[in-house]
Amino acid sequence: xxxxxxxxxxxxxxxxxxxxxxxxxxxxxxxxxxxxxxxxxxxxxxxxxxxxxxxxxxxxxxxxxxxxxxxxxxxxxxxxxxxxxxxxxxxxxxxxxxxxxxxxxxxxxxxxxxxxxxxxxxxxxxxxxxxxxxxxxxxxxxxxxxxxxxxxxxxxxxxxxxxxxxxxxxxxxxxxxxxxxxxxxxxxxxxxxxxxxxx
Length: 199
Hints:
Elements lengths: L1 H44 L6 H18 L1 H14 L3 H18 L8 E6 L6 E9 L2 H7 L3 E7 L7 E7 L4 E2 L4 H9 L13
Antiparallel strand pairs: 1-2, 1-5, 2-3, 3-4
Helix pairs in contact: 1-2, 2-3
């Protein structure tokens, strides 16, 4: 009897815990973003409006997008980046974050192109990597191989990792999407593409 109760309790815990932690994280992020603009406005109007900070944040993000898509706005952003590029510490942080976000969320020219398998870190061991670019003519000429650049992410944080150059023939293309490959990396191989839960 106690064994069944214990098994039922653990099953319920495995169902509820991920949902509860997800909700806690979402609510924490919501409050952190909301309080940025909500608190100063609350001090002015004298009462609390939940969600106002998030709404203002979304408006600012959309406004920045509209400005960036406009030619004059684009020139203004370019000028701002030139100024940031002259400040040593700010330059390193800003352009590192920009490059990372463009790699993950950017256009087809900057996003991961394909999920592949590469033999890394040693022969007989395979890891998931993402093709990011074709090698330059100089690298192809000097290596004598058709090389590609690949990004090897780490688990459980796929935004960190390392960049290596490998011969295209040494990569094994995968049929899974970029999103499925990232899920596989983040979960440490637990969440598999197309995996169906056992009834």
